[in-house]
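Bug #77: duplicate submission created two jobs. Keeping one. Sequence:
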Amino acid sequence: MQKAMDTEKSFLEKEPIGKLLLKLALPTVTAQIINMLYNIVDRIYIGHIKDVGALALTGVGVCMPLIMIVAAFAALVGNGGAPRASIFMGKGDNQSAEKTLGNCFTLQIIISVILTVILLCGNRRFLLAFGASGNTIEYAVSYMNIYALGTIFVQLTLGMNMFITAQGFAKTGMLSVLIGAVSNIILDPIFIFGLGMGVKGAALATILSQALSCIWVLSFLFGKKSFLKIQKCDLKLQGNIILPSLALGLATFIMQSSESVISVCFNSSLLKYGGDIAVGAMTILTSVMQFAMLPLQGLGQGAQPIISYNYGASNVERVKDAFKLLLKVSLSYAVILWGVVMLFPQIFVGLFTSDTALLEFGQPALRIYMACMFLFGIQLACQMTFTSLGNAAASIVVAIMRKFVLLIPLIYILPVIFSQDKTSAVYMAEPIADFFAVSFTAILFTFQFKKALEKISVKG
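Kept job's structure:
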């Protein structure tokens, strides 16, 4: 074990930052791109189901708030526990790191059982409240009833995989996602078209694929190659271990679960002002947004072990250098993708539908919705660094500001101001909120990052 820990130290503490970020971020970005395909491939296939594709796509889109909630709970535990495990490893406290892993594993199982019961018992009521209409509700319920049964696989795959990446095993973490994504891409057309199962087939393909990923992740964490292992002695929940992890993961939970709340607000407003076609377009817009968000999150996850470990080891310069490089790469990616979306919106919308009306409606809506996407490199780099440094309070403030203080009120205020085109006004809420949120985040980060570096300078 000590030899393994020395190996961990040698490359996280001594290897050049640029080479190290490439080594760790390339697999995590690849994993997120694969995960992006994982998330949207259902919608691509569903949107092209003959005759009913547009309505089926809208119905499955209404399921997204519930799916986001499941992912958010995985992030609450994994995104909070994994950075703390890295920090403990940087301090040489491997015992506390393993206790964090074991506690998080137990909690995710408990959460999975609770979520499964809630989703199976109440999904129709939730879906109707979230923007499903009489035309789309049956598609939504058919998808969600099956998806709910795979909640435990989703939870354990997403949450526990973060502990694999946090140890520096980025390629293994990428394979976790790759196994599920490839399985899903293969199974989707078989179940949806070959067996004629429609949206039920898409849901079944998803949970079977997640089950395969889950087996891979747990096999690694119970196996010999992992520095940290899930052990029976660490499974009993301890307040001093799990509560700080939840506090740190709360920001990511708020950010992801708020996406669920935001989706409900968007869908209900769009159904009111633009009908099913506006809700269907929103499904496409949020899917395209993942092209920006998930790779950026992958970059942040690749940088997380570097920042967390060296913060724990009081290596000020390496923490600064890692953040600067993360910011440059993230911002460059966001600007390039924004330019492509603005120039060629028809390519992105066309991936999800062949319906003429939805194609025409979706292109200008996409340009409005993603108008400030080029700033997301700043937002995600700062957000992920807050988490990597263990700064739960700042992460929570940033998450709340963007979603609850800015975006939700704007969804309802802007249609009143721009009453001539209320549907477009709803879409405008996203870029306006993004602009002010990024400005706030950048200012807060400037002060908090300096404070964090001063703290470890004194320790060093």
